[in-house]
Specification:
By secondary structure, the chain is mostly helical. The chain has ten helices and no strands. It has helices at about 1-10, 35-50, 55-60, 65-75, 85-115, 120-140, 145-150, 165-205, 215-225, 230-240. Helix 7 crosses helix 8 (about 165-205) and helix 8 (about 165-205) crosses helix 9. The longest helix is centred in the last third of the chain and has 40 residues, at about 165-205. The radius of gyration is 25 Å and the shape is elongated. Mean pLDDT is about 80; it is low at about 5-20.
Length: about 240
């Protein structure tokens, strides 16, 4: 990813910001060659895929599990908007980059670099790029979720995992990630719920029913989370859940 951005920056013309920005147009002219039309359609398809890049990042990587767990953590702490949503999403993105880096390095070595060296064509490069992503998703997908979509699509169980269609694998992977995230979120909630119950019971036994329990439990939950090094534990649990 960083190599791609650097390549774009290097290819930019050395013009001042005050210069007029040239317009970009895409046209096939009056060409009668079918190859020209095919190339133009491929460029248009590539530009369309770029618009779907955020969805691909969310649905085909570890981002879903991480951001859902962080949302559960903030709800369990009861700190409203702290940490801010931008901080949690940013941390989730960088953790996603860390977890997916071996996959992206494999794609770069087996698909992108051979394609740039013109050793393979686009079709082979695309198949090689999908293989590491497919392998990562299959490791995180439950068999029951995979069979659910296979049966709904009226597809027989593939002989090998690599034969699973991507349009079946992606939704199976997403609901498996949501299940795992909810399981982790439940475990996160347990100590904070227990603390809330203890504080509420103590206040009722003292006859302080007019005092909102959250006023007492909130600082206690924050102190407890800091003392046990909560961010370290949550991050470590997420990494272990991906077998890092």
């Amino acid at each position: 990813m960083f190599r791609f951005v650097l390549l774009l920056l290097l290819l930019m013309p050395h013009t001042s910001w005050a210069a007029d920005i040239p317009t970009l147009s895409l046209s096939l002219g009056d060409s009668n060659d079918p190859n020209d039309w095919f190339t133009g359609l491929k460029i248009l398809a590539f530009m369309t895929i770029l618009t779907l890049a955020p969805s691909i990042l969310v649905m085909m990587t570890s981002f879903t599990r991480i951001v859902v767990v962080f949302a559960f953590l903030r709800q369990a702490l009861g700190t409203q908007q702290s940490p801010p949503t931008q901080i949690l999403i940013g941390l989730a993105l960088f953790m996603t980059m860390f977890i997916m880096m071996p996959v992206w390095n494999k794609i770069d070595a087996e698909a992108i670099q051979p394609y740039l060296a013109e050793d393979i064509n686009q079709s082979v490069a695309f198949d090689r790029a999908l293989a590491p992503i497919r392998s990562f998703m299959l490791k995180q997908t439950r068999e029951d979720d995979l069979l659910l979509f296979l049966n709904a699509a009226h597809i027989k169980k593939p002989q090998t995992a690599d034969d699973t269609p991507m349009y079946v694998l992606i939704p199976s992977f997403v609901i498996s990630e949501l299940r795992t995230a909810f399981e982790i979120g439940f475990l996160i909630y347990i100590p904070f719920v227990v603390l809330d119950l203890v504080v509420a019971s103590v206040l009722m036994s003292m006859g302080m029913m007019m005092l909102p329990p959250v006023m007492i439990s909130l600082p206690l939950k924050i102190i407890l989370f800091v003392l046990v090094d909560g961010w370290h534990l949550i991050t470590g649990a997420l990494l272990q859940s991906f077998h890092m």
